[in-house]
């Protein structure tokens, strides 16, 4: 007798359905890859708009200075929508908490606070639009993208240093120092010895500080990992950083670079092979400093910076006063006074420059100069403290992950952490440049924590 085949044979329908499912999966993966590539281009555009937004507002399109202030907002919205629609962005607890507070804050600001809807929306964009980008950048970018962006940042820092030199030695009435909207009184902030703090391509000095603090982290990283970068670019970027520190007349930049060096020392202590590289790098820095010390333009800048440092130290109560006021931003005072605020606060967005302009017609600190004071003053003690705790919690998680990566030989997120621990917990997010760099650096760190997928060449 012929044996009977009892195995189940796939039907024609099942075969076609399987083929269709396979094709759909392939198309879905291809669609996701194309979307990821598009989003990466969007992140690069975010960087360039962050760097050159001030240049557009001062020199290229001064008549559109006000709308250009939020030029990155539509791009951020587009990236978030695109990523969400293609399954590349998912809500997490951080985004949900911040988003909920941002939405509630719009209503409380209008009903119980300042009553201006536009001011409330401007304040809400920080939590609803920009904060989620941290996780989008971390999702879409990989380690190699973070390294590539670092190379670009170092390359741009070189001509930007030349611009800083020109601004430092030019009068405020010069075109190179023109202010936002073509303001002929200049964009430089008062510094010392008759010199002003140069804003470079940014609207204000805060952008210069944020940019070169980030540049310092990448300079150290590439000194310890020279593969993949042109040595001439690294040497020139190092010289640019050394030049800009005194010419900026900014203590914030000085302390930011100092903190970067502290993180470098910790990294070296964990990996002995870094010692030789840093000794070589320190030797190059010493030679550059020795050469620059003989140049009058650098000596003048150093004298102005020293004068500013000494004067500010005296007026602010010495080094302790500087560190507490500048880097902790009145955090403890804000916490102490938090429950003295009205429950719903003065209204979201009131502590920003835009909020000040729309409500009073001038720019002033209507709520508080420090970030924690501004947040609690705007949102009230409950919502304000939720925002602060969320930012602190995220800072802690990134710090732990970065240290763990360092232990595994991944230096990059650790160097970026030196910036994050200043800007994420209490950075002045009401200022667009600081907000942009905070979001970008946090996102880059999250992406870098994933580690390299291939060897750098």
Q: Give the strand content.
A: under 5%
String of helices and strands = HHHHHHHEEHHHHHHHHHHH
Helix content: over 70%
User: Number of DSSP strands?
Assistant: 2
Number of domains: 1
Tell me the strand order in the biggest sheet: 1-2
Estimated radius of gyration: 25 Å
Distance from first to last alpha carbon: 69 Å
Give structural notes:
With 457 residues, the protein is mostly helical. The chain has one domain (32-449). Helix content is 72%, strand content 2%. It has 18 helices and two strands. It has helices spanning 12-60, 65-68, 72-85, 93-112, 117-130, 133-140, 143-169, 205-224, 231-247, 251-270, 273-293, 296-315, 318-327, 331-337, 353-360, 371-407, 412-426, 432-449; strands spanning 189-192, 195-197. Strands 1-2 form a two-stranded antiparallel sheet. The N and C termini lie far apart (69 Å).
Topology of this structure?
Blueprint: H1 12-60, H2 65-68, H3 72-85, H4 93-112, H5 117-130, H6 133-140, H7 143-169, E1 189-192, E2 195-197, H8 205-224, H9 231-247, H10 251-270, H11 273-293, H12 296-315, H13 318-327, H14 331-337, H15 353-360, H16 371-407, H17 412-426, H18 432-449
Antiparallel strand pairs: 1-2
Which features does this protein show?
mainly alpha; two-stranded antiparallel sheet; 457 residues; 2 strands; single chain
Short description:
The chain is an all-alpha fold and 457 residues long.
